[in-house]
Write a structure and sequence with these properties.
Length: 98
């Protein structure tokens, strides 16, 4: 909803190849000014240890491919006690100048 409201072009779960592995980041978007590709991963069960370990491994693989938080990767999180909100999404976009 936040991407649509800000008129940011995006694709939902668009395939990304890193080496011989396929990933489907939650969103692949194009920065409207720089035209750079930015990926957005939302990790929704970070209070689950197994899920959190897999999320960290995925972030490490992204980093090895030059997909880096703060540069071209937006990462958001939530837990049962701290659900992700629309305001969180808007704040994440503002951090990227979107």
């Amino acid at each position: 909803m936040a991407l649509h409201q800000k008129s940011i072009p995006y694709r939902y779960e668009c395939k990304l190849l890193i080496g011989d592995r396929e990933f489907y980041p939650d969103f692949t978007l194009i920065h409207p000014l720089t035209k750079e590709i930015i990926y957005w991963e939302h990790f929704g069960k970070m209070d689950d240890a197994d899920y959190a370990n897999k999320a960290m491994a995925k972030m490490k693989l992204y980093h090895s491919a030059g997909i880096i938080p703060g540069k071209n990767l937006i990462i958001t999180f939530e837990t049962k006690d701290r659900p992700f909100t629309f305001n969180d999404a808007m704040a994440a976009l503002v951090q990227y100048g979107l």
